[in-house]
TrEMBL record:
InterPro entries: RVT-Znf (IPR026960). It comes from Coptis chinensis. It holds the Pfam family zf-RVT. Residues 142-188 form the Reverse transcriptase zinc-binding domain. This is Reverse transcriptase zinc-binding domain-containing protein.
Amino acid sequence: MEMLMKLAWSFRYGSDAFSSFMRLKFLTKEGSLINYYKPSSVWPGVKKALQEIDTKCQWVIGNGAKIDLWRDCWAGKHSIQKGLNLLDHALKGCTLKLESLIQGPILRCPAHITQLLHLARLSLHDVKKSTDEDYLVWWPDIKGHFSAQDGNSKKMGVTIASKCRHCGAQEESLIHLIWECVFAKEMWNWLAGKFKFRGTFTNMKEAIKLSKNSSPRVVHLWTAAVFRGMTGLWKHRNKIFFQDKAVSKAFC
Ligand SMILES: [Zn+2]
């Protein structure tokens, strides 16, 4: 469960490429969780963990850009949606972000929204405002860090460091992780060596092209190896990220 909670947290609030990808895949345009089944073995567990997180967190409002007026908790312990018992489809098309109610450091709620809050048993008195970016706090830890029991989860705050855990480079992106990172390059060099190719490619297309003069069997094997390498690097990253494992090629 611990790992699923972390995964759910990064799914909801992470700013890395994988989190964005997962959000595209599993959230509706309006930001509700999808209800139909997508073929992903982690989804049911992540969904449960997401619901758990959603009932235990509140946004501290910075510029409001990340905060959904209807679906997020920002004026107490539940969202307006929850407080008013609104089903997802009732909010179809409602995508207002708090951003539009913010003027400089101040949140200005028009009367009808204040009334809505009241009906939803929420109150502007419970709003937490900051001058930084929006971030999420884990009830009752108002200071602002995700506090699961494992004690080393500071990194799970919304400001997840986007440092590459393989090489320590500052920006972790999918492209870095899979093609540019020293760790990835070593893996590719090794793999290409097995096929007597040179590991000088910097993306999937280039990699696959290396086998263009080979026999169909080698093309097939090489293509499979490239895919396997890419997913291996991704899984390795998650092992390190979510389970605090040390970098090791054994996971790839
Ligand atoms: Zn790296």
